[in-house]
Design brief:
Number of strands: 9
Number of helices: 11
Order of helices and strands: HEHEEHHEHEHEHEHEHHEH
Helix content: 25-40%
Distance between the termini: 38 Å
């Protein structure tokens, strides 16, 4: 019996060491602008496997090999932070109405719905529960978190996950320094820039001078736009480029749907022509398979 227990302890220790080593590798890759391996971001975790923003979807994303899970944060009536995209409960749970009108205890009685709007066995997780699940395993992009980050940061400290968090926003650099300045040396911050809008290149240059972000999330509607090529040259070797393939108008039509028909025309175009080294997708397993076949994801 003692021998079995000892073997179990050794296995758990080995798995924990492996997970930590993998996380350190992800962190090193995402903070190295020279590294050309592509970082994979699972949008709302793997919602095709389990309900979006659920613990099961997060766990599956990690096991698939995603480097980052993107999660949405909302606040309950009693000031507790939970994972949910919408401000209302109707689409993703068996409840109805605004999250701000429900206490956490009441929300915990609800069940999450899957992508077909069917009730599942899964419950709404708190932000703290999600962070503990991801701790030392994967990076976490917290969406809808910018306005309430002062309330979020103590939870990051409590769970020991400050190093894992990616924050993003479309605010000008002066506002970011004002709002998040005291956190910027503790977390990863990435500006969101619509590069087909006037002044976008100047905004990027301002961020490079004053913050030197690890990466920029870039959006453009049509691939007739020449700005992505300009930005690629501007950021080469300095900051990583993040593109979203969730739907067509986020990356000039080179989205998940195009990639399902022709991954070289979808994902490949963003990587090879536009310099993407971070891609957020709703098709985590498919993107990972494509990248591994090309030898640009471990």
């Amino acid at each position: 019996m003692m021998k079995i227990i000892l073997i179990g302890v050794i296995l758990l220790s080995t798995l924990s060491s492996y997970a930590q080593q993998r996380f350190e590798d992800i962190y090193k890759r995402i903070t190295d602008p020279q590294n050309k391996e592509v970082i994979v971001v699972a949008h709302r975790a793997d919602w095709r496997y389990a309900p979006e923003n659920s613990l099961a979807a997060i766990e599956h994303s990690i096991r698939q090999g995603a480097d980052v899970v993107e999660l949405d944060v909302q606040k309950t009536k009693d000031g507790k932070l939970i994972l949910m995209h919408d401000k209302t409960l109707d689409r993703t749970t068996t409840g109805h109405g605004k999250i701000a009108d429900w206490t956490l205890d009441s929300i915990k009685t609800l069940y999450l719905k899957n992508g077909a709007s069917l009730k599942t066995k899964h419950r709404v997780p708190t932000l703290e529960e999600a962070l503990l699940l991801t701790k030392g395993r994967v990076l976490v992009n917290l969406d809808k978190a910018y306005p309430i980050f002062d309330e979020i940061f103590p939870i990051l400290e409590k769970t020991g996950t400050t190093k894992q968090v990616i924050m993003k926003g479309n605010q000008p650099v002066a506002e970011v320094k004002r709002d998040l300045g005291k956190y910027l040396d503790k977390i990863l911050y990435m500006p969101i820039v619509h590069i087909d809008k006037p002044g976008a290149i100047q905004d990027i240059e301002n961020f490079m001078k004053k913050l030197k972000p690890v990466a920029f999330e870039l959006l453009f509607v049509s691939d007739t736009c020449q700005a992505p090529l300009v930005v690629k040259d501007l950021l080469e070797g300095k900051s990583k480029i993040w593109y979203n393939t969730l739907w067509d108008t986020m990356a000039g039509g080179h989205d998940d749907d195009m990639s399902l028909e022709n991954p070289d025309a979808g994902y490949g175009y963003l990587i090879d022509k536009l310099g993407a080294t971070i891609i957020q997708t709703d098709r985590t397993d498919y993107l990972l398979e494509y990248l591994r076949q090309r030898g640009i994801h471990k």
